[in-house]
Structure formats: C-alpha cells, structure tokens
Specification:
Order of helices and strands: EEHHHEH
Structural class: mainly alpha
Largest sheet: 3 strands, antiparallel
Strand order of the largest sheet: 1-2-3
Radius of gyration: 12 Å
Helix content: 40-55%
Shape: globular
Strand content: 5-15%
C-alpha cells in the first residue's frame, strides 16, 4: 500500500481503490512506488504517460458525475485495446488541465 490509497496488483491489472482521491501531481510518484513493489506486472509494458492519462480520465469522469461507481476506482490493464489507447490518450490530454 502506498501512503495515499489502497491498490492491488495482478499479472495484467493494477486496481487503484478510490483513485479519485489522489491529485494528479501524485500520479507519477504513486505509480513509481507501485512499480518498485511489483515490477513483474505486465501493466508496466505501458508507459507512465499512458497510465497517467487513463487515471486522469477516470478522475475527470468521477468529478463530472459520470459513472461514479465505476470511475471512483481505476483499473490499469495490459493489454489494452486500441480504441482505449486512443481514447485515453486524447481525453487524458484534454482533461489534464481541469482535474485537481
């Protein structure tokens, strides 16, 4: 567990519990701490930027009230379908300036 929130790691998934509580300035530090503890997860085949974009989209949707029960947590998966890669890349960049 990081000092900010609970998470669980499997071979192809990192589940970030109540991820909406973590501000964007801490995303990279938290992801690095998780990677240090669980370096064998295949999720690390993705870039940190990709993971941060997906987390940003979840936080933005949560703040907007969109699917709150689903967007309060973030599941970072590997592999990721191409539509999700594109969607999170575009939306993550769009929402980044507006999330806390």
């Amino acid at each position: 567990m990081t000092d900010k929130f609970n998470y669980s790691v499997s071979e192809n998934n990192i589940h970030l519990e109540s991820s909406f509580t973590v501000p964007k300035v801490d995303f990279e530090r938290e992801l690095s701490a998780i990677r240090d503890q669980h370096p064998d997860s295949k999720v690390w085949n993705r870039t940190i930027k990709s993971l941060k974009n997906e987390w940003a989209v979840h936080n933005a949707f949560y703040a907007l009230g969109v699917f709150k029960s689903r967007t309060s947590h973030t599941d970072l998966n590997w592999p990721q379908g191409w539509i999700f890669r594109i969607g999170y890349a575009v939306l993550g960049k769009l929402f980044w300036p507006f999330i806390k």
